[in-house]
Amino acid sequence: MADQKVLQAQKFVNSVYGSKIGMTVDEDGQTGWPVMYALTRALQYELGISPVSNSFGPTTLSKLTSMYPKLNAATMPSADFCRIVQSAMYCKGYDGGDIDGTFNSRVQSGLTTLKSDMGVGGAFPGADLTPKVFKGLLNMDAYVTVNAGSEQIRSVQQWMNGRYVNRADFFIIPCDGHNSRDVSKSMLYAIQYELGMADGTANGVFGPGTQSGLKNHTVAVGTTGTWALLFNAVMILNQRPVEFGNFTASTKAAVETFQSFAKLSVSGIGDFPTWASLLVSYGDQSRKGQACDGVTRITAARAAALKAEGITYIGRYLTNPSTTSLPEKAIQPGELQTIADSGLRCFPIYQTYGRDASGFTYPAGRAAGQAAVNAALDHGFKAGTRIFFAVDFDALDADVTSNVLPHFKGIVDAIADDGNRFGIGAYGPRNVCTRVAEAGHSTASFVSDMSSGFSGNFGYPLPPDWAYDQIVTRSVGSGDGAIEIDNNIASGRDTGQSSFDKPRGTLPDVPFDGGYLTALRTDVGKYMQSIGFPDDGGNRVFTHTECFDTILANDSTVTAQSNRCAMRKALIQTSAYWEMRHYDIIDQGVDAQVASYHLNGIGLVKDSSTGIAQISGDVGIRAWNHCIAKGYVSGTVLDPSKDDDIWTMWQKVNKDNAYALQTVSWIHLWDAEGKEGGSNPPGGETVLRSMRLDYTETEIFEVLRRYQGWGDEAEEHATKRMGLYQIFEKYNGIVRNL
Questions:
Q1: Is 52 left (phi over 0), alpha (psi -120 to 50) or beta?
Q2: Stretch 550-558: mean pLDDT, rounded?
Q3: Confidence check: pLDDT of 397 > 90
Q4: Cis link prior to 131 (omega < 30° from 0)?
Q5: Cβ(318)–Cβ(375) below 8 Å
Q6: CATH says 160-279 is which class?
């Protein structure tokens, strides 16, 4: 619903300043960052700052402070300047009068209320508008509780504002009842100020000076004054049930509960390790945890070194998407047995290249879930093992909602379709782990607390279900036992595995076992339905059953080509099934035009993607020519520029399903080897490693993507094809290991 005063403010800033500040805002009566940016620019224009920007930064604050340290009825420079103030007040939810350029009693009353809500009424008494309050007025921070905010946290926020607002680098923080990155950093400033650090030295960083100072400020029952308030404040910000006041017996009880939860020494006093765990995600990095994770193979010597350090649980990666970096990142042959023989336990981690939100989607989650299951079985992990799926980037809360949660729903669905053999854990920042768990998508968290600057760590409490808390990288051992690890505190919620099945090994594919046909058909159908393809075909020509049965009816051809090309059957099955499922009425019409061109000389359409694998005459010719030249297959070289040759190939891939499936494998080889000719990215396709049975997920993705082409749609479809690939690979893996 539009707010008429906000609408008036938007009309004012557009009409008076739009041409002067390089922007206008939508006149919709809705408060948001655009109108705050416009008002900030308008203020900068009035201050003579050029160029103007969206940021109320040091230049704006310095200029405002030097020119107008106190704005009131006597010092307001112009009516439009006053209207900027009045407009901002309405956008902030305070009475700003009639936006008439008059600093009247209503404006003064509104500013008094604003400062009281901020907690700075004592620091800035009266109705004067001071520069730091103006800065706070021109952002989207709330100074009253919102979204079920805590009144206790709001009290802490107001107290900090009132006590420290006159320090040079301390700016008014929100008083909305929620901890956040800015609030937590401001608490570090508060600690540093109370330690006696001067402006310019205090920096909001948990550095050596801050740590040293805190070691001299242990608090306990009977502590009163500022240090008791600070300690109780950080407890409150961590959602611990204490009163914002002196350190009492009830504080001690809450501290003991927190220390037990965080696996600190339970003393009931606010010692340095407790301060550290409350103030920064990684806490006291001198702690030695019982767990670690790393990208280096565990040998017997390294296992001995880890045991000597008190390590019991080792996190290792199921796969490595790269073929060039971190060669020991993935679990190596024989490694799990070495871990077991050394009396250690292993918990598996699944991670690919997802370094931003775009890598996390429902289809990608479906693929990740089944890929992790396949890899876990390959390595010999037993049913009941919990796999930790990584979200290793600075995910904002909005990213969690839009991308991470759907991704984990995909993982959940994939694991469920596999029969829930494996558990699901989340690896990532605190907010990610907490929200994934609250959504019911994981049962334990592996918290990347070392990344203390992540938005999802700074200002968020340790997740209730944390199993491993990653706090520091350190080197242990010497000689053959030397190894670099990420040291993790262990809670006991996950204990990994200490015995393993025999690894499945990299075996060639074999003919499909009909006993698994129904299960495979069902799983493929469920996956396709989950990404928008109904079993009845919907608006496409072929049903799921027709596509599936066509591909599996040619299993002998697919198996032969798999063995001939050292290529996983799933690559051929996936590309063919996917293309056949996409065949629609439009494709039928284009095929008819091609036939009319060659048979009747009517029309201009001489080629199209056709047949069960949607292969054009041109692409089929180029792929066959490439493989003939390489000696992979014998045959007649055709010319893609000749109509007769295009028609010859087109008819084969259109009418002969076995030939089309054979051609899929040649296209994959052509694609992997650089795909000369045809439609390629501007820089050309890179050359992958020669085709092999142990292609990484990155290489598999590339082959599937190149089959379709390049660009955003090909990338999106390849992500979805990956889920299909992993399902085919699941059952192919079962059959070849019978």
A1: beta
A2: 97
A3: yes
A4: no
A5: yes
A6: mainly alpha
